[in-house]
Design brief:
heterodimer, A: 253 residues, mainly alpha, 77% helix, globular, B: 297 residues, Rossmann fold, Alpha-Beta Plaits, 2 domains, 29% strand
C-alpha cells in the first residue's frame, strides 16, 4: 500500500512539474470553456438547457480524456522509449502497481480538471445545478478516466515513442470534435451525427448531459454499455501492445 | 566465521539467447559468488548487456537456465535482493534525486536510509537537483544510488562509468569497492579493461556471445601470454621450451623471444643455465594487451 501511494504521489508530481503537460493537456479544455461558455455563449440555450451547463459536460469529457491520453499514454510511451520502463521492470516494484499508479494519476488530474471547469461554470457562467446533479455529473465525468485511462495504456504501448506526441494529438483532437465535444453534436452534419455513436467520448458526454435532461432519445444504459465495451477493447489492445513490446525486446518481432 | 552457506548468488547455465536470427549468447556459463565483484568484459556487441538483462528477468532465454538466488528472475520475488543500474537514454526529468531515491527505497523491505544511500553513492550534493539538470556523469551516480538504495545483496551494474571523466570514474570505483567491503556481490559490465582490472575479483571475457576467458586478472594475463622475455643466449630453443612457465619460444634475429606466464621464473632458470645470457628485454602484458589478444581471435 505504501508503495502504491508513493508511486502515485511521484507520478503525479512528475506530471505536475511537466510544463508541456500542464500547458497543453490541462489548460486547453479550460481555455475552450472560457472562450465558449464564459465569453461567447453565456446566456444562450440549447432547447431548455443552458449552453454553459451543456459545455460543462462536453468540455469536462474533453478534459478527462486529455488528462488520460497525455498523462498516461504519452508518458508511458516516453518512458518505454527511454528505457526507464525497463529500470522499473528490473526493480522489485510489482508491475500492476506501476500501471495502477499511472491510472490513479490520470484520475486525479481528471478530478482536478473537472473541478476547475465546475468552478469556472458556477462562478463565471451562471451554471446552476442542484447539489446532487453536480455530484452526479462530476462522478460520471471522473468515471470517464477508466475507458480513457485504458486507451492511454494502449497508446503508451502501441505508439512508437518518437511519433507518440503526434499520434496522441491525432487521436485526441479529431475524436473530440467528431464526438461533439467542441460543438454540440446536434449542430454537426447528419452524417457525422451518425458516426459519433461509434466514438467513446460521445458516450461519456451523453451520460454527463443526461444529468441535465438532454438526450431523451437514447436509453441511458446504452452509453454505459458502450463505455464498458470500449474499456474492454482498449485493455485488450494494451495487452497486445505489452506482448508485442516484450516480443520485440526478445528479438521476436 | 561461516554464515549461511550460499556461495552462489546468480548463475547462467549454458544459456542461449537469440535476437531473431542473430545469436547474442552462445551457451554461456557464468556465476556470481557471494561477496565477489565479477567483471563481464568485452567489446560492444559481445553480449554483456544481454547477459545482465537475462539475470534481471527482462529477457527470456532461448536455451539453458537462469537462476538468481535459486529462482527464475522473471518471478519478481527474488528482485528484493537485487539492485540494478541499466543504461538509460534519459530519465523522468522533473523529479529530484532525493525523490527518486525515496521512491525506489519504498520498493524494498529493508532499504538504506536516504542519507545512507546518498553517502554510499556520493550524491549528497545532488539531492535537490532535478534529474533533467544532471550531467552525464551525475546521472550515472544518481542511477547508481537507485541501484543500491534497497540495500540489496547483489547488484548488477551495466557500464556504470560510461560517459564519466577520469576523476568521476575513480570516484565510482571507490564506491563500488565500498559495496564489496560491506559484503555485497557485484556483477558489472565494462569495456574498460582498466576498470575490470582495478575492481574485479574475477573477470569473465565475453566475445561474440561466448565466454572466452574466466579468471583473475593475473590468470588471464598469464594465460594470454602477455609476458615476454627477450635475450641473447647460447641455449637451444628445445632447451628453453623445457623450462617451467614457458609457453612459446621463437628466434628473432640474434636473440630469442620467450613467451611466459612468469618472467621471474624464466629469468632465474636462464641465468642459472646460461650465465652469459645478455641483452635482456622484458615486456609485461597489461590486461589491455591480453584483452586485445583474446578478442582478436
Amino acid at each position: 500500500m505504501n508503495i502504491y501511494w508513493k508511486e502515485t504521489k511521484y507520478e503525479f508530481l512528475k506530471m505536475l512539474r511537466n510544463p508541456r503537460f500542464g500547458l497543453s493537456a490541462l489548460s486547453m479544455p479550460l481555455l475552450f470553456y472560457i472562450l465558449y461558455a464564459v465569453v461567447m455563449y453565456k446566456s444562450s440555450h440549447l432547447g431548455s438547457t443552458r449552453m454553459s451547463s451543456y459545455m460543462l459536460a462536453t468540455f469536462g469529457s474533453f478534459g478527462v480524456m486529455g488528462a488520460c491520453l497525455f498523462g498516461i499514454g504519452l508518458n508511458l510511451a516516453n518512458e518505454r522509449g527511454l528505457g526507464w520502463l525497463e529500470v522499473k521492470r528490473a526493480s522489485p516494484l510489482p508491475p500492476a502497481i506501476y500501471f495502477l499508479a499511472k491510472l490513479t494519476m490520470g484520475v486525479l488530474f481528471g478530478v482536478a480538471e473537472v473541478a476547475a471547469l465546475f468552478a469556472l461554470g458556477i462562478g463565471l457562467a451562471h451554471v446552476r445545478l442542484a447539489p446532487l446533479d453536480t455530484l452526479r455529473m462530476f462522478g460520471i465525468l471522473v468515471a470517464g478516466s477508466i475507458p480513457f485511462g485504458a486507451l492511454g495504456l494502449a497508446l503508451g504501448y502501441l505508439a512508437k515513442p518518437d511519433s507518440a506526441p503526434v499520434l496522441v494529438n491525432l487521436i485526441y483532437l479529431p475524436l473530440s470534435f467528431f464526438s461533439g465535444l467542441w460543438m454540440p453534436v446536434e449542430f454537426l452534419p447528419k452524417a457525422l451525427q451518425h458516426t459519433a455513436v461509434y466514438l467513446p467520448p460521445y458516450h461519456l458526454s451523453r451520460l454527463a448531459l443526461g444529468v441535465l435532461g438532454v438526450d431523451q432519445d437514447h436509453v441511458y444504459w446504452n452509453h454505459w454499455q458502450a463505455l464498458v465495451c470500449f474499456t474492454a477493447i482498449f485493455l485488450g489492445l494494451a495487452m497486445v501492445g505489452y506482448r508485442r513490446d516484450n516480443a520485440r525486446q526478445n528479438g521476436l518481432a | 566465521m561461516q554464515p549461511e552457506f550460499q556461495p552462489e548468488f546468480a548463475r547462467l547455465n549454458r544459456v542461449i539467447k537469440n535476437y531473431g536470427s542473430r545469436r547474442a549468447l552462445q551457451e554461456v556459463d557464468l556465476c556470481v559468488n557471494r561477496g565477489e565483484i565479477l567483471a563481464l568484459l568485452g567489446p560492444n556487441g559481445a553480449g554483456k548487456t544481454t547477459a545482465v538483462k537475462l539475470l534481471l528477468g527482462l529477457l527470456d532465454p532461448d536455451g539453458g537456465e537462469v537462476r538468481v538466488f535459486g529462482q527464475d528472475p522473471r518471478e519478481a520475488r527474488g528482485r528484493q535482493r537485487t539492485g540494478a543500474m541499466l543504461q538509460v537514454a534519459r530519465v523522468p526529468e522533473t523529479l529530484r534525486v532525493r525523490e527518486h531515491i525515496d521512491l525506489f527505497s519504498s520498493y524494498y523491505p529493508h532499504p538504506l536510509s536516504i542519507p545512507e544511500t546518498m553517502e554510499a553513492a556520493g550524491v549528497r550534493e545532488l539531492a535537490n537537483r532535478k534529474f533533467g539538470e544532471l550531467s552525464g556523469g551525475e546521472k550515472q551516480r544518481a542511477l547508481f544510488a537507485l541501484a543500491l538504495c534497497g540495500n540489496p545483496d547483489l547488484l548488477f551494474l551495466d557500464e556504470p562509468t560510461v560517459g564519466m571523466d577520469v576523476e568521476a570514474r575513480r570516484g565510482m570505483w571507490k564506491q563500488i569497492r565500498g559495496l564489496a567491503a560491506r559484503g555485497k556481490s557485484v556483477l558489472l559490465t565494462t569495456h574498460y579493461l582498466e576498470e575490470a582490472e582495478a575492481l574485479a575479483d574475477r573477470i569473465v571475457v565475453l566475445h561474440r556471445g561466448s565466454v572466452i576467458e574466466n579468471g583473475t586478472a593475473r590468470e588471464i594475463k598469464s594465460r594470454v601470454t602477455g609476458q615476454v622475455v627477450r635475450c641473447r643466449t647460447k641455449l637451444r630453443i628445445e632447451d628453453l621450451l623445457r623450462f617451467d612457465y614457458v609457453t612459446d619460444v621463437r628466434r628473432e634475429g640474434d636473440s630469442v623471444k620467450i613467451q611466459t606466464s612468469s618472467i621471474d621464473d624464466v629469468l632465474r632458470q636462464l641465468i642459472l643455465t646460461d650465465p652469459e645470457a645478455a641483452g635482456f628485454e622484458l615486456q609485461k602484458g597489461g590486461l589491455e594487451d591480453a584483452f586485445l589478444a583474446l578478442t582478436a581471435k
